[in-house]
Specification:
The complex is a heterodimer of chains A (about 525) and B (about 160).
Chain A lengths: L2 H8 L3 H8 L2 H25 L20 E6 L3 H10 L4 H11 L3 H12 L5 E7 L3 H12 L15 E2 L3 H6 L5 E4 L3 H13 L3 E4 L7 H14 L3 E3 L7 H11 L6 E9 L22 H5 L9 H5 L10 H18 L6 E7 L12 E8 L4 E8 L8 E5 L2 E5 L3 E5 L7 H5 L8 E5 L12 H6 L7 E3 L2 E3 L1 H15 L9 H20 L3 E4 L4 E2 L1
Parallel strand pairs in A: 1-2, 1-4, 2-3, 4-5, 5-6, 7-10
Antiparallel strand pairs in A: 7-11, 8-9, 8-17, 9-10, 11-12, 12-13, 13-14, 15-16, 17-18
Helix pairs in contact in A: 4-17, 5-6, 9-10, 10-18, 11-14, 14-18
Chain B lengths: L1 H36 L6 H5 L6 H9 L1 H24 L3 H18 L21 H14 L8 H12 L1
Helix pairs in contact in B: 1-4, 1-6, 4-5, 5-6
The chains are: A alpha/beta (about 525), B mainly alpha (about 160).
Chain lengths: ~525, ~160
């Protein structure tokens, strides 16, 4: 009996066999393809990854036990309102608004949900102070909204309103003060608070003048309060990964760092709306002026104070400091040896005194590098943070991407063997991914380097301002001398560096830092 | 003569459709396995880049960690199982339906409509019809013209069943 006849008898012919299993070789080919892909991935890891064994920050730090802290907020406008939200307090009409928008738009539903899910920091807003009546009244309602309700919901005891910050810092009902005033009032409020033993969270930049920078450092150190400067970028995970990467010498010797501000809308250029309820009766103008030169009442100056040197620190203090603090936390650069700035008012000819285009070069001869800042308020061409090393360059925002330099000495062998490709991203960190890994798919490759709004902890979107405030509160509760990440020494470096740039801009000359005598010359 | 010609034609078209089934399956299977084998893979960026009428829904998926995790797992294993089924020729009608469903979801997240732009660059120029739609219709052909009994595991299984009867 032939095998063909045998098969027919069984009902399974050879033809059935062949046609039935015809596609099996396809699986073999796909398996081979996958094996190749995996091998390539492994070899890429073997070639680069040993040096890139990062420790991304894992998890949100637990809240330290301790009593409920009583917070006073000085300056309850835009930023003050945002800080209160990051602490867990918003005006009930905003909750109603988010609820209404959330009924037809999932973005807002989610936004509200995220706010309601935000950890309770165990604080109470007991005191508020603002020179604009409307802001103060809203802050009172905000502080009372302990349960994160809408207008019809239950409220707790409302914070007390103080007409001056001097009275607020004297209050025995306040343990710690948040300073969210215009720049020219940061130091006066911070010093007054510290002298009354209140801990301080101060918005950036630290100071408006050089002299007061020394003074506030002295007072904070003498009083021993817990001070945190409001650079929430300290909590951005990609910066922490970049730090670890540079410590492991992945990109080689860095000779140039470029940081930028690219904005192109009136809001970004500080042309904020003027509130129709604002007038000489509802604004305490004299208190607003504070240490600034006297000027008759002016609504533009009040709402758009960032546009005038009288109250502002301009691009250098307002926006460069974010960039500086990012780089300073990664590299520990400190104060530069010299600064040279130039720029002008080229687009917003609206009576402002601060420039809308500014370029500054800071020299660090001891570190063999230049820090370059370039800003315009009238173009959004995206120029991110770039650190240029001899072996690779690193682009940084919420994500981090490393590009290999074709002339790298360190990676020459791998480049010659074709194991690593120059100019292309060889490595990327995307927040929210489980761990740091090489780029694997075309989609990831494309999105690597594109900014996302939040920093991620364990893949969960987190508001960096919330994390930054939380760190400050934890240090206060620990009460053992533990300092927050953006403490007064970091703040001092930030402010002096920004002032060196500003003075250079004003005087059209290079400024120098005399480190021995702690003096700008 | 004409009848023989027609029979030949239908045999050829069956072979062509079976091959179509296998190559579409190949595409699904490889995409699926690459995702299954990479624990870091997530559809988050793709979902965030959604456009068109349903972008709110896709972004909502991307924003919710639990839903995103479920979406990623279903997608990766869905692609893999559909791929296996189409390549091997076993229950491939169900696979074709499932595949069309997945492709429809991809299309609705990135519809090729004029005026909608995406961060992720396109590999060609499309107006309403793109490769996702073409692959969807390929699966429709596979659904309406089963070939598992012709080239596929189903043929082997059914002939064995025949034997037992």
């Amino acid at each position: 009996m032939s095998s063909e006849q045998n098969n027919e008898k069984k009902g399974v012919t050879r033809r059935d066999m062949i046609a039935g299993l015809a596609a099996i070789p396809v699986l073999g080919v796909i398996g081979y393809g996958l094996l190749k892909q995996q091998q390539e991935k492994i070899s890429r890891k073997e070639n680069v990854l040993p040096e890139l064994d990062f420790k991304a920050v894992s998890g949100v730090p637990a809240l330290v036990d301790g009593p409920v802290l009583r917070i006073g907020v000085v300056g309850c406008g835009g930023r003050g309102g945002y800080l209160m939200k990051a602490l867990g307090f918003v005006h009930p009409d905003r909750i109603d608004d988010w609820e209404k928008k959330g009924s037809s738009d999932v973005f807002w539903a989610q936004y509200l949900q995220e706010f309601r899910n935000q950890d309770d920091l165990r604080i109470q807003i007991t005191a508020v102070c603002d020179v604009f009546e409307k802001n103060a009244q809203r802050a009172i309602r905000t502080g009372a909204n302990v349960f994160r309700n809408g207008e019809s919901g239950q409220m707790a005891e409302a914070p007390k309103r103080y007409l001056t910050y001097q009275e607020l810092v004297e209050s025995p009902d306040v343990d710690a003060v948040i300073v969210a005033t215009p720049d020219h009032l940061h130091v006066p409020v911070a010093i007054a608070a510290a002298k009354h033993g209140k801990h301080v969270y101060c918005e950036k930049p630290l100071s408006w003048t050089v002299e007061e920078t020394f003074e506030v450092r002295k007072v904070v150190k003498e009083t021993g309060i817990i001070f945190q400067l409001g650079h929430q970028g300290r909590q951005t995970e990609s910066y922490q990964v970049a730090k670890s990467m540079i410590e492991k010498d992945v990109i080689g010797k860095i000779s140039l760092i470029e940081v930028c501000t690219n904005r192109n809308d009136p809001n970004g250029a500080w042309v904020y709306d003027i509130d129709p309820e604002a007038n000489e009766q509802t604004i305490d103008w004299k208190q607003f002026i504070g240490p600034a030169p006297w000027h008759p009442f002016n609504l533009e100056r009040f709402f758009r104070w960032r546009c005038w040197w009288d109250y502002s620190t301009g691009l250098s203090g307002d926006l460069f400091t974010h960039e500086f603090d990012a780089i300073n936390q990664i590299l520990g650069l400190g104060i530069p040896a010299s600064a040279m700035a130039s720029g002008g008012i080229y687009f917003y000819k609206d009576g402002r005194t601060v420039p809308d285009v500014l370029n500054m070069a800071f020299e660090y001869p001891k570190r063999d590098l230049t820090l370059l800042y370039s800003a315009t308020l009238s173009s959004e061409k995206n120029r991110g943070k770039a650190m240029m090393g001899h072996d690779a360059w690193l682009e940084l925002d919420e994500n981090l991407t490393v590009y290999l330099d074709p002339r790298s000495t360190k990676y020459k062998d791998q480049i010659d063997k074709g194991l690593l490709e120059p100019f292309k991203p060889i490595y990327s960190y995307v927040p929210g991914q489980g761990s740091v890994d090489a780029i694997t798919t075309p989609t990831e490759k494309y999105f690597a380097g594109r900014g996302l709004l939040y920093t991620y902890r364990d893949g969960k979107a987190m508001d960096t301002t919330h994390l930054h405030l939380r760190e400050w509160l934890n240090c206060i509760r620990q009460n053992n001398g533990t300092q927050p990440s953006c403490n007064i020494d970091q703040a001092f470096e930030e402010a002096i560096t920004a002032h060196m740039g500003t003075i250079s801009y004003h005087q059209g000359r290079k400024t120098h830092w005399d480190a021995a005598n702690e003096e700008i010359i | 003569m004409q009848y023989t010609q027609m029979m030949n034609n239908s045999k050829h078209s069956l072979i062509a459709i079976a091959l179509l089934r296998i190559v579409v399956g190949w595409h699904f299977l490889y995409e699926g396995l690459v995702k299954v084998l990479n624990p870091e893979w997530t559809s988050r960026a793709f979902l965030l880049d959604s456009g068109g009428w349903f972008n709110g829904f896709y972004r909502y998926l991307a924003g919710n960690a639990t839903l995103l995790n479920i979406t990623d797992t279903l997608n990766a294993w869905g692609l893999t199982l559909i791929g296996f089924s189409l390549v091997l020729g076993l229950w491939s009608r169900f696979a074709a339906l499932g595949g069309m469903f997945l492709l429809a979801l991809y299309y609705l997240s990135h519809p090729a409509f004029p005026g909608i732009t995406y961060l992720f660059p396109s590999d060609g120029s499309y107006f309403i019809v793109n490769k996702t739609i073409v692959e969807m219709f390929a699966l429709a052909v596979i659904y309406f013209q089963p070939t598992d009994y012709f080239i596929g595991l189903e043929r082997l299984i059914s002939s064995k069943k025949r034997n037992h009867e």
